[in-house]
UniProtKB/TrEMBL annotation:
Coiled-coil annotated spans: none
Organism listed in the record: Streptantibioticus ferralitis
UniProt keyword annotation of Transmembrane helix present: yes
Top EC class for this record: translocase
Keyword Transmembrane: yes
Reaction equations catalysed: a quinol + 2 Fe(III)-[cytochrome c](out) = a quinone + 2 Fe(II)-[cytochrome c](out) + 2 H(+)(out)
Top-level taxon of origin: Bacteria
Cofactors named for this entry: heme
Protein name per its UniProtKB record: Cytochrome bc1 complex cytochrome b subunit
UniProt keyword annotations, A-Z: Membrane, Transmembrane, Transmembrane helix
Amino acid sequence: MLFQKRKEELKAKAGKLAAGGFVALDRRFPAAFSGRQLLRKAFPDHWSFLLGEIALYSFVVLLLTGVYLTLFFDPSMSEGVYHGAYAPLRGLRMTQAYSSTIDITFDVRGGLLIRQVHHWAALLFVAAIGVHMLRIFFTGAFRRPREVNWIVGVTLFLLGLLEGFCGYSLPDDLLSGTGLRTADTIIGSIPLVGTYLSFFTFRGSFPGHALIPRLYVVHVLLVPGALVALISVHLFLVVYLKHTQWNLPGRTNRNVVGQPMFPQFTAKSSGFFFMVAGVLGALGALAQINPIWLYGPYRADQVVTDAQPDWYVGFLEGALRLMPPLETNVVGHTIMWNVLLPAVVLPGVLFLLLFLYPFFEEWISDERSEHHLCDRPRDRPTRTGFGVAAVVCYGVLLMAGGNDVIAYSFRISVNGLTWLFRVAVIVAPVLAFVITKRICLALQARDRQLLVEGRETGNIHQEIYGKFIESNRPLSARERYRILLRDIPKPLHKAGGVSRVRRFKAMASQWYYRDRVEMPTTAEQRDQINARTAPPALETKD
């Protein structure tokens, strides 16, 4: 009885302290209002929205496994003789970076598992960001007011590539050293300043003795800090700007229909985190990746055979292999076009286009309103064609990065295969664009046919005069809503007496938006569509 009374008193005091602390916090910060708004935020439920969560949760796994590996990794490039547990390497001279990685693999309990989970998580992190960006691109979720969040996402993808390359290079094995040699060549190809940048990066001639410690600082401190900051900004903007949603009944451009953050979304998201972590743990335990003990320590006079980078930089390797050997001597300076164009200009142009595309589409359509409904890719055939063409181009370059392995495996000429990829990298994206655009228009035509004729039932009946007729059933309200509720800009009209820029803009808009299949709608349906796609009432026009 006495203990029960004492327990109730302690519970009452704890509750009083918690209430007092919350009141003190709420007086200085809108905790009650912000907490209530956040916990009741609606999250639309669709599988494609999980792609961003996969990237987030794989990043969490990366941080946790990276902290564990940091406790045992030594980034020093001082050399010594190996006398560890792995017998085939005993007696070889190697750097402390490579030796400590071997020790993590064979001497630290769970070291190999954590290393492989870390590597798989890195691959999944970059892949999830890439696929998430494709979802954002194809559905138009980058449009106003989310242009800044798109820029943040592209920057995250770029930093993910940098982080992956730094981590890939830290073990100082023969494979990663080959990649660093390629990086040194790329840096040196930059006109005028390339040799100075290379000297500064390696603190002397390649390979130097300072790069691994510098990459270690970048890998464990600078880039992770930037990633955490940008991910926080990204999540804040998602909450502040509202979530995009698919055009289903009840969903308009001025509301968000979904499950509240607590408890539904929190419970589902927590379970999904453990699923992602479990899959990465299974991969780390069952699927071998980056067996550095087979490559041996890096030596500048050796190159490992079948050297392939991780997939996210494989397109650069492919571009380097496809570029003809072109060089130009200008006033005693050699410009290596065969390295500069594929490894410096190509990625620079690629990321510049990614950063600017939302503003290009806004400029070409003359739209200044907010958009919170996702586009169906078929309704934007030109944009979808561009996206598929870019994916095909990337796929060709990725395969070209392994042209030697492909040629050896299929017993074909590596020179012939290289020329095949050179043609494909130009022709295949164009064909992909044309075919994708035609498929999108065909799908729009199919939607129109469904609206007019209905969906086939498979039931056939015979009229009194002997004619056989297949009966169709009209589409459901949900299907009609999804097809009819689309927000496609009208092409800009060409007008005389305007500036050349305006005429060019009108011509580009006509080419970009002219191909479409109009859906049969009544005047009442058009009014309803305009009402549901209207921007939020509080939006201010430019």
